[in-house]
Amino acid sequence: MNSVDAKRILETALICTPQPVSIRELRTLFDDALGADTIKQLLEQLQQDWTLRGVELVAVASGWRFQSRPQMRPYLDRLHPEKPPRYTRAALETLAIIAYRQPVTRGDIEDIRGVTVNSLIIKQLEDRGWVEVIGHRETVGRPALLATTRQFLDDLGLQSLDQLPTLGDAPVQVSMLDALDAMMDPAAQEPPDEDGAAEAADTHDDGAPPEGAEGGT
What we know:
The protein is α+β, with helices and mostly antiparallel strands. It folds into two domains: 3-76, Winged helix-like DNA-binding domain superfamily/Winged helix DNA-binding domain (Arc Repressor Mutant, subunit A, Orthogonal Bundle), CATH 1.10.10; 89-200, Arc Repressor Mutant, subunit A (Orthogonal Bundle), CATH 1.10.10. The protein is built from ten helices and four strands, in the order αααββααααββααα. It has helices at 3-15, 23-27, 36-49, 73-76, 89-101, 106-113, 119-127, 150-156, 172-183, 197-200; strands at residues 55-60, 63-68, 131-136, 144-148. A two-stranded antiparallel sheet has the order 1-2. It has a two-stranded antiparallel sheet with strand order 3-4. A hairpin with a 2-residue loop joins β1 (55-60) and β2. α5 crosses α7. The longest helix is centred in the first third of the chain and has 14 residues, at 36-49. It is globular, with a radius of gyration of 20 Å. The termini are far apart. The relative contact order is 0.14. The model is unreliable at 185-217 (pLDDT under 50).
């Protein structure tokens, strides 16, 4: 099979698949006749083929996918003018701490933010597929260790945590929040529970900026 036909097959498969596709999965299109290196070279050629178009081929944590370019967002938003609400500041702060300090326990998050963490916020992030329990800390009570998921990276268009924005000179907690908030795509976010429970029930969390964070990624 020549490269033109191979690229056409890859292009079709990626366009018709809503989720990212790994190179291992793409190899099955050719009954493993093409190696991983060859597939990757063809994908990189496809990236070049789409350079001047409104859609781009990108590699994220779970594989490769086509997506609209950021500069197309204002036009696409006209098709869906009613954007879902953004996550609360408390939820974003919690997510930022998990992303930059993982793995962390709920107690770690509370120490950094200076307020108790409502369980509904953690559940909201878990339901969104951005946070998961990866183990337990061997201490009293064996608290769950929280970390971000591949879905989190996929939704932010990243291949790895190393691609998260570098924290600047601003206080770490503010830099964490601003970095994630800037990367969040409102169109890709789901609204909170219809009754606003995740925010309203957060009676111990006034959304104030966290205190006591220390530097480090």
